[in-house]
Design goal:
Pfam families: CO_deh_flav_C, FAD_binding_5
Distance between the termini: 63 Å
Largest sheet: 5 strands, antiparallel
Strand order of the largest sheet: 4-5-10-6-7
Helix content: 25-40%
Order of helices and strands: EHEHEEEHHHHHEEHEEEEEEHHH
Bound molecules: flavin-adenine dinucleotide
Number of helices: 11
CATH architecture of the largest domain: 2-Layer Sandwich
GO molecular function: FAD binding; oxidoreductase activity
Number of domains: 2
Keywords: FAD, Flavoprotein, Oxidoreductase
Protein name: CO/xanthine dehydrogenase FAD-binding subunit
């Protein structure tokens, strides 16, 4: 197996163009497990860790651009106040060792339906910046990025450069069910992000379909039903939960049954919406 060490982003794109079969590696917390277990044996690894640009994040015109190599640990410490939903999800990833190595870019590259970064990225309308030497930059909305189980929209010569997302405009929550409290792959997960300026609630659902997904009908329901100047009626929260659950197409597997996942999604969606709504109302009352 060849080992290619790119030191600049331009070098990385050139290496991927020259050898599209080369597997990019960042934290290695997915790639090395797969190699150790002989799940895959790529012709080459393309090490992106020396590429300084990937480890940077910046904010411009109200949008955060988070390099694909920013780790979960840094995301929590440096961006937790601006992206509370993604930070909550990041805190549930593996252990501190995994959070010190693992990256959101790697979660996107792996495109596992159970990846914890995906629901908050969907709920927050994130856009993935992909790039190739031949065609330049391509901006892919998160909702169009996941194509199937562990399949994403990247072309063989493309790499993920960054994720673009607006800082939270309102409360955000992420909740996941696992068979224990830590070091666990989600049985299912839900993220909500309130966008008060647009009178809209974004959603993301994980580990309950071949891909992470948005619950579009649930979002439309809230856009029509929510009165942003009053309380959240319990039947509205309950119906939202049902619609989030209905958006999923879960399977029975070692982690849980489809029926359990459907039930848990409805509960998680109702809870996360209620938490976010209560935070929003409290903040609105303080300002009144
Ligand atoms: C013990 C353990 C616990 C874990 N727990 C969780 C958990 O709770 N939740 C969770 O979501 N995940 C978990 N994971 C999986 C893993 O940590 C995450 O998916 C992490 O985000 C991967 O990031 P990485 O930087 O290590 O990716 P890598 O392993 O380096 O790469 C992952 C994939 O992304 C591709 N890739 C990496 N960078 C790029 C790029 N710039 N452009 C294009 N493709 C790229 C790689 O080729 C590979 O296919 C766990 C893993 C382990 C070993």
């Amino acid at each position: 197996m060849d080992f290619i060490r790119a030191t600049t982003w331009v070098d990385a794109l050139a290496a991927k163009a020259a050898q599209p079969g080369a597997v990019p590696i960042q934290g290695g917390t997915d790639v090395m497990v797969e190699i150790n277990f002989d799940v895959r044996r790529p012709p080459a690894l393309l090490d992106l860790t020396p590429v300084a640009e990937l480890a940077e994040w910046s904010e411009r015109d109200g949008v955060l651009r988070i390099g694909a190599g920013v780790t979960y640990a840094r995301l929590i410490a440096e961006l937790g106040d601006r992206l509370p939903g993604l930070a909550q999800a990041s805190r549930t990833v593996g252990s501190s060792q995994i959070r010190n190595r693992g990256t959101v870019g790697g979660n996107l590259g792996a495109a596992s339906p159970a990846g914890d970064a995906h629901p908050p990225l969907l709920a927050g309308d994130a856009v993935i910046e992909a790039e190739s030497a031949a065609r330049g930059v391509r901006m892919i909305p998160a909702a169009e990025f996941y194509l199937g189980v562990k399949r994403n929209a990247l072309a063989p010569d493309e790499l993920i450069r960054a994720v673009h997302v607006r800082p939270a405009a309102g409360p955000q929550y992420f909740a996941k069910v696992g068979t224990r409290n830590a070091m666990v792959i989600a049985v299912c997960s839900v993220a909500v992000a309130l966008h008060p300026g647009e009178r809209r609630v974004g959603t993301g659902v994980g580990s309950a379909a071949p891909t992470p997904l948005r619950a579009a009908e649930a979002e439309e329901y809230l856009a029509a039903e929510l009165d942003w100047d009053s309380g959240l009626p319990a039947p509205v929260a309950a119906r939202f939960g049902e619609l989030v659950s209905a958006a999923a197409s879960p399977i029975d597997d070692v982690r849980g049954t489809a029926a359990y996942r459907r039930h848990a999604l409805a509960v998680l969606a109702r809870r996360t919406l209620t938490w976010a709504w209560n935070d929003y109302r409290k903040a609105a009352e303080r300002c009144a």
